[in-house]
Amino acid sequence: MKKYIAILLIVTIAFTCACVLCACETGEELTLYVPDGAPALSVAKIINDGKVGNHKVTTTVTKGGNEIVAKCASGEADMAVLPTNAAVNVMKKNSDYLLFSVNVYGVLYVVGTEQISNLSDLVGQRLYSIGLTNTPELVFKTICDTANVSYVNVDDSTPNSDGAINILYKEEASDVIPFVLNKTAKFALIGEPAVTQLKNKAAEKNVTIYDLFDLQQLWQEATGSNELGYPQASLIVKKDLLTNGFAAKLLAALQANNQFAKSHLSSLNAIMRGAGSSLDLNYTEDLLNRCNLTAIPASSAVEDLNKYLAKFNLQLDADKIYNANND
Prior knowledge:
With 327 residues, the protein is of the alpha/beta class. It has 14 helices and 13 strands.
């Protein structure tokens, strides 16, 4: 009888070890949520691979950030790329997440149907823009304040002021593009890859779109940023996942993303659309460069993060940042 019990124990232990080994090899299934556009492009390699290390990762591309904030509030998202200010607000409400990396260092550009050389040339003109109360508004107005250029918010029924840039805000880039194409708007502030979409549509109508101002460069000059641009989109991760080597594998995947994307230009559109992107583009290396994709550990970008977040009256607490040295 003792012999049979011993055999049974050996079999049970062997089965348990096999299950543990299997679990270690396959890892748990994780969810990653990202907004469409440049934030989604910043995780293209993860989308394509469907995994990070031994963990299967299912990535969902959404139209905007509100849905993702809800997924984080419920804890359904294991990882999420969000506008950095939104990510900080999420972490204030849900202590399960840490700020892991900065993924996009700004994607905003002022374009137009005629050429100008200085911000002051926009005074008296109407500028159609996205991002009221968000990054586009705060970045552009900070740049204007530094350059001593006046601005005023207007709506469709407001006459232009001759002494200021007249900014008319729309919700999405898709709401701005038609006004440029029908020549109602001469100037627009939108982000990549929407700028490329606008240029493609304009070319079909024999309309020329000029690149006028790179707001990333102007921000760097206005604020003395250490990076070219501002930490516009960042990745938050559930802190319980950042153990047993997962953090290093995740950072490695993110840091390999740019090279992966540039090596898969011909298939990148299909990869992104397969994850839910609504964009249908012929991706080029120039477009990717204009999206300012990066993978900087949040712990290495604290100064830029706090300088940027201060515009939202936010502060990033040290205990909300993942730091491998603390593991």
